[in-house]
Design a protein that fits this description.
Length: 349
């Protein structure tokens, strides 16, 4: 917001003095009719003109008053500064994520198809965060480092599929990779993020989605939990699907689906509860689509970005713009006053 103002507006009342003086001089100059000797000679001479320095003096007085009122231009700049989180999504891509125990609009859908749009919506709801994705099966890897480019991130989520990694469930390694990515982002800009473009981080946390129990990898869930607790990074765990016998697609040698069979599903709920409890997170059991949405909504509400309004006011002084011309006019008026006003020449007696 920008505007012109006077810092001392009451000083402008002094401007009333200028017209008052002008009226006083005008009426003071009137005099009674007198009989003047040799009036005829005076009549032939031109009347006395108002000296030009008077106008310069009036203008100087006006400018001095304006200068004393201190004209200013004020620029009021308000910026909303957003401080987000560093957030890693750790997603299970083992073949068990193909189990079709969720219900979609057109019938049963698998676990991966269910979580994909919910993750994408979660990312869209957090524009101030740096978000990355780590995936795991038998091994773990970084699919997307922490970034503020959420459009690119959404395309990576859309590309999630099983079969990218050998089958297995390395929960500990998935969490470990996420911890490494957060640590790397805090020591330098992550790949794909321009220096200085990342928001200030107010913290970090991890969201772990899995439908199984740890059966491979270098780190155990307990070791990964200890590392997260040491680094003070909460882990929110979400168990997808349900335990027991669940429908699972059957494929032939060419990868074509030929039917459906029932396969056992074993989710280690105790391990997920322990990970969340020991790191300051929370465990969610998402046995259906609504429960999964509710889990992400609860996490979103618990870890919201912070906003601050930073205000800066800049004041530009225009005192000199009035004071300098006033000084010049005063000098001209003084010079005219010193020279004086020529008097009319009297005729010889």
């Amino acid at each position: 917001m920008t505007g012109l103002r006077f810092d001392q507006p009451l000083a402008l009342l002094a401007l009333l003095v200028v017209p008052a003086v002008m009226l006083w001089r005008h009426y003071r100059g009137r005099s009674a009719v007198r009989i003047v000797p040799h009036a005829a000679a005076w009549a032939s001479a031109p009347g006395p003109a108002r000296p030009p320095w008077i106008a310069a003096l009036y203008a100087a007085c006006v400018l001095i008053v304006i200068a004393l009122a201190r004209p200013q231009q004020v620029s009021d700049d308000q910026r909303v500064v957003q401080q987000g989180y560093d957030l890693m999504l750790v997603v299970d891509l083992s073949t068990s994520m193909l189990s079709e125990d969720y219900k979609g609009a057109k019938g049963p859908i698998n676990r991966l198809e269910t979580i994909r749009p919910i993750i994408q919506q979660f990312v869209r709801n957090r524009p101030g965060d740096r978000i990355g994705i780590a995936v795991f099966a038998r091994q773990a890897l970084t699919l997307a480092p922490l970034t503020t480019d959420h459009g690119w991130l959404a395309r990576q989520v859309a590309a999630l599929q099983t079969g990218l990694i050998d089958d297995g469930t390395a929960i500990g390694d998935g969490v470990g990779i996420a911890l490494l990515d957060i640590a790397a982002a805090r020591t330098g800009p992550p790949p794909g993020t321009a220096p200085g473009s990342a928001p200030d981080s107010v913290g970090a946390f991890i969201v772990l989605l899995t439908d199984g129990s740890n059966n491979s990898g270098e780190l155990t869930p307990a070791e990964a939990t200890a590392l997260a607790r040491y680094r003070k990074i909460p882990i929110y765990t979400i168990g997808t699907g349900r335990n027991g016998m669940v429908p699972f697609p059957v494929f032939d040698a060419r990868g074509r689906r030929v039917g459906t069979s029932l396969q056992p599903s074993t989710l280690d709920i105790d391990a997920l509860e322990t990970i969340a409890a020991q790191t300051g997170g929370r465990f969610f059991m998402a046995g259906d689509t609504e429960a999964l949405r509710a889990a992400f909504a609860a996490i979103d509400a618990a870890r919201k970005a912070q906003f601050q309004i930073r205000r800066s006011v800049r004041v530009s002084e225009f005192f000199a713009w009035a004071a300098v011309p006033a000084l010049v006019l005063l000098l001209l008026a003084a010079q005219g006053l010193r020279r004086g006003t020529p008097s009319p020449r009297r005729p010889a007696a």
